[in-house]
Write a structure and sequence with these properties.
By secondary structure, the chain is an alpha+beta fold. The chain is 37% helix and 20% strand. It has a seven-stranded mixed sheet with strand order 1-2-3-4-5-7-6, with helices on both faces. Helix 8 links the parallel strand 4 (131-137) and strand 5. The radius of gyration is 17 Å and the shape is globular. The two termini are 33 Å apart.
């Protein structure tokens, strides 16, 4: 039997990518059962890449099934503009922006609010690190060097397409992810504050040059 295989994303992989996004959706832990709409996490953090920039989407296939991915854009500002035109409008027609006290929102309502008010990367981050990416592997693939392999492949792909630097956003309490990115040469760029009245958590932005 062959081991895991890294390959380009294909259209038939969408459901598997969404499933992985859910199963790693709580700071790397399984979010299954935590959302009334299990696709909402995928709509926010995976679907835009698959629809808008599939040429920068890689998956890891293991035993005939997709079990990990790395999704990226070479130009964050261009990607954000494309999402405004081609991705968020259809989702907004299906998910209302929740009213009332944000402190009383459900997990689904927090994500629905982000559909209507998607995050925008700080200019201080994208100025020198215009690309950004998301990477997730199911637990059975973790600790085997596959994260480094898929990231190294993505770095080369983004550099070939003109990106000079790449950034990621991480929860500052996610020590496992922070350690992973540190070993790949990422350094801290800035950390956004967590405002008491906001649904947006604090985010630590990390970046590294390419390739």
């Amino acid at each position: 039997m062959t081991g895991p295989v890294l390959r380009r994303f294909r259209a038939e992989d969408v459901a598997a990518v969404y499933d992985i996004c859910l199963r790693t959706g709580l700071s790397g832990e399984d979010a299954t059962g935590h959302y009334a709409d299990p696709d909402l996490l995928g709509h926010l953090w995976a679907g835009p890449f698959l629809a808008i920039e599939p040429e920068h989407c890689l998956v890891v296939e293991d035993s005939g099934a997709v079990a990990g991915y790395c999704l990226a854009t070479a130009d964050t500002r261009r990607f954000e503009a494309a999402c405004r035109q081609r991705w968020w409008p259809a989702l907004r027609s299906r998910h209302d922006d929740p009213p009332g006290d944000r402190g009383n929102w459900s997990r689904d309502e927090v994500l629905a609010h982000l559909v209507h008010h998607p995050p925008v990367a700080p200019e201080a981050v994208v100025a020198r690190h215009p690309a950004h990416l998301h990477v997730d592997l199911l637990p059975r693939l973790q600790g085997r060097g596959l994260g480094r392999e898929v990231m190294t492949a993505m770095f080369a792909l983004l550099a070939t397409d003109g990106a000079t630097g790449v950034h990621v956003g991480v929860g500052p309490g996610n020590t496992r992810a922070l350690g992973f990115y540190d070993r790949l040469g990422f350094t801290g760029l800035l950390q956004t504050p967590r405002m008491p009245s906001s649904t947006r958590p604090s985010v630590a932005f990390l970046g590294r040059p390419l390739p």
